[in-house]
Amino acid sequence: MSEMKQYIVVNVKSEEYAIAISDVQSIEKVPTTTHIPQLPSYMVGICTIREDIIPVLDLRNLLYGEIVASTTESQLILVSHPAMTIGLLADSAKEILSIQEDQINQVGLTGYHQTSYMKGVIRLDQRLVTILDTSSWFANLNGMKEIIHYMEDYTQEQVK
After folding, report:
1. How far apart are CA 135 and CA 90, in angstroms?
2. Beta-bridge partner residues of 9
3. Residue 149 — pLDDT band, cuts 50, 70, 90?
4. CATH number (domain holding residue 123)
5. 110 pLDDT exceeds 50?
6. Structurally, how many domains does the chain consist of?
7. Among candidate residues 44, 87, 88, 94, the one with its CA nearest the CA of residue 69
8. Which of 32, 66, 78, 160 sits at a 20 to 30 Å CA gap from 56?
9. End-to-end CA distance of the chain, in Å?
10. CB within 8 A of 150, min separation 6: which ones?
11. Do 119 and 133 touch, CB atoms closer than 8 A?
């Protein structure tokens, strides 16, 4: 029997995506964000959660290239990254799934460099849930280094 893993399922557009619960720090209501110019379009801005400054990345923009205002249903998924905590803006957070590793179907697109963050797909009755590997995604995301540098500089400015 394979290892059991838990995932948070989020909705983006009409699709479902799963993020390993071990990568998720918390799920929050979407706070007021401050837009930061000259950073990638998928970065909504920064916000404060429990006195921490968090960069907010829009999953809809990252996955589909669309910019849509958040709604009352929108959720901010706080995800661990070695350099900082990152907020991922999703249309909603839906459920927690417990899945055996052997229930994950590999997708042929994982070899394609632009979708290497898609770890696999879970088939549940009439649903397909795509698993996102946030570590791989953030490591290869165009503009992420600039965001990390900006956040380091911003944090240092706040300490002064």
Report:
1. 17
2. 18, 95
3. confident
4. 2.40.50.180
5. no
6. 1
7. 44
8. 160
9. 54
10. 36, 39, 55
11. yes
What digits encode the pLDDT tens for the residues 29-82?
999 999 988 888 899 999 999 999 999 999 999 999 998 888 889 999 999 988
Give DSSP secondary structure letters for 63-130.
HH-------TT-EEEEEE-SS-EEEEEESEEEEEEEEEGGGEEP-GGGGSGGGTTEEEEEEETTEEEE
CA distances from 158 to 50, 53, 88, 137, 152 (A): 15, 10, 23, 28, 10
Helix (H) or strand (E) segment spanning residue 33:
none
Of 27-36, 89-98, 131-140, the range with the lowest mean pLDDT is 131-140
Six token digits for residue 14: 């009409």
The domain of 47 spans 4-159
* Cα torsion 101, 102, 105, 107: sign: positive
Residue 141 structure tokens: 């995301």
What is the spatial distance between Cα 115 and Cα 109, in angstroms, rounded to a whole number? Answer: 6
Q: Are 67 and 78 in contact (CB under 8 A)?
A: no
Name the pTM for this structure.
Answer: 0.88
What's the full length of the chain, in residues? 160
Q: How far apart are CA 113 and CA 122, in angstroms?
A: 21
